[in-house]
Amino acid sequence: MRRCSLLLLLLFGVPARAEQAVTAPPGWDPQLAAQVYITALTFMAPRTLEPVALAQFTLWGLRGLTALDPALSVETRDGQLVLSAGGRVLSTAPAPAAGNDSPAAWVHATIALTNAAWNASAAVRKAGTTGILRGYFDELFNHLDPYSRYVPPFEAGDDRARRSGLAGAGITLARRGNSVVVQSIIADSPAELAGLHVGDRILSVDDQPVQREDAATVAGWIAGPEDTIVEVTYRGRDGRPHSIEMLRAMIPPETVITERSGDILIVRITGFNRRTDVRLAHELERNFSGPRKPTGMIIDLRGNRGGLLREAVAVADELLPAGMVAITAGRDPEASRIWRSADGQLALDIPVVVVVDGRSASAAEILAAALADRGRAVLVGSVTLGKGLVQSIAPLPDGGELFLTWSRVLAPRGWPIQGLGVLPQVCTSLGQDALNRQLASLAEGTQPMAQAIELHRAARAPIPAAQALAVREACPAAEGRDTDLQTARYLLSHPAAYDAALLPISGGN
To answer: Judging by DSSP bridges, how do beta strands 264-269 and 256-261 pair with one another?
Structure first.
């Protein structure tokens, strides 16, 4: 984002023409709005998936005024942008000459018409500056894709906190009887470094007794501003009280949860944040360094809505030899990239089954697609959501953020994730009878999903909606169920069925 940051610094000063727009009534900040619009249009114009003229951006955005007050309408007429209400023209502004690629010129016209709408409409005045900005971007993004969006200032801070994590000690608490106890601890967190253990009973936080409080309240006491001290008194395994001081830190939520089921390691990944690959590597090393190593692994991605692209690639890197993981393709050169795994994989010599469902999305789909396309894992479940677009984030002068889709994700074999989703090799969403028939065929060395998978992997962007729907119908999207894990265990215990289900290793990686 260095390039974007430098660009934005240059844009915070609005050109004189935009600042000289008609003086607006009190309560509406045209200068701030102009800064936001210029920053946004300058950022968006070279980066949208398909080229869009500034004139079109402007017309879409101005129709946000109509969304606020249906009596208002905006159109272009004889080289003018025209704001009307009930057939009466309220204001006009000259549209910049054809081919004018200056955002400032279009923003000047936008501000002039918005000032007139503010004067004429109580609904627009009620929306205020933030509501007008939101209306502008909502209408504009309605014409682009489902994921580009404007986040106003009061929501942007929460979004940033969710992406980075929460400042705290890295523990979860639960009430057991009359006690609040430590239920789980994030590795390398302040709590683990201070010596807390699962099962320790919390007695007080900063000298506040917790006896009558619920676990959520106590967790709120422990959380706080980053780099501040919290003192916790607890009763440990020795039965004695201990007091510790912890420095609160930004702790990304735990996303990797492991358990053993006999000789099978089950790894549940709930999302992809900036520590997911580190946590996975730690768990794999811990489980494969002992005397009783797993003979198979299940990676559960059901309900995983995604997260950071880089983390999906880094997780794939733990499981794949050197080769392609994904391709991102966009108009901006920085959006186009081939993402590769290095030659530092773990657990390469054991079979892997990845469990997905209709809620698996984004980074989860990237990981699943890479492992399947590269012949490293069998996918079990239903077709996934089909979110294969990548957003770039730009800070805005009002404190909000702009999420803009700027690239498509392609799997190693070249098919797009967007719209199609990832089709599993073993489908559990067609009912138990269909699943039983499929498993019986796999045990005999025949893959019933072969034709559907071949059609899926042969698809290329852009995908017509009817084609995507036809491909997805081979294994309809469904919520995860117990059958998924049962099927995964069956495949790991029946090598012939596993081998029949596995895609052949793709070349050119």
So the answer is: antiparallel
Q: Using an 8 Å Cβ cutoff, are 48 and 107 in contact?
A: no
Distance CA(480)–CA(259), nearest Å, equals: 18
Q: Which domains does the chain possess? A: 2-144 (no CATH), 165-251 (2.30.42.10), 256-501 (3.90.226.10)
Region at 86 (left for phi over 0; alpha for psi -120 to 50; beta for the rest): left
Residues 148 and 137: their CA atoms lie apart, in Å, by 9
Query: What proportions of the chain, in percent to the nearest 5, are helix, strand and coil?
Result: 40, 25, 40
Residue 276's φ and ψ, nearest 5 degrees, are -60, -45
**What would the two tokens of residue 364 be?**
């989860």
For 413, the token pair is: 């074999």
Instruction: Please name the residues in contact with 502: beta carbons below 8 A apart, sequence gap of 6 or more.
Output: 375, 377, 378, 425
85 pLDDT exceeds 70?
yes
Q: What average pLDDT does the chain have?
A: 89
Most confident range (mean pLDDT) of 92-101, 168-177, 468-477 is 468-477
The end-to-end CA distance of the chain, in Å, is 28
> The pTM is what?
0.78
Could you tell me how far CA 281 lies from the centroid of its own chain? 22
CA separation for the pair 36, 86 (Å, rounded): 30
Long-range Cβ contacts of 285-290 (<8 Å, 24+ apart): 285/346, 287/258, 287/260, 288/346, 288/347
Q: How far apart are CA 173 and CA 33, in angstroms?
A: 44
Residue 20 pLDDT exceeds 60:
no
CA-closest candidate to residue 5, choices 392, 408, 331, 332: 392
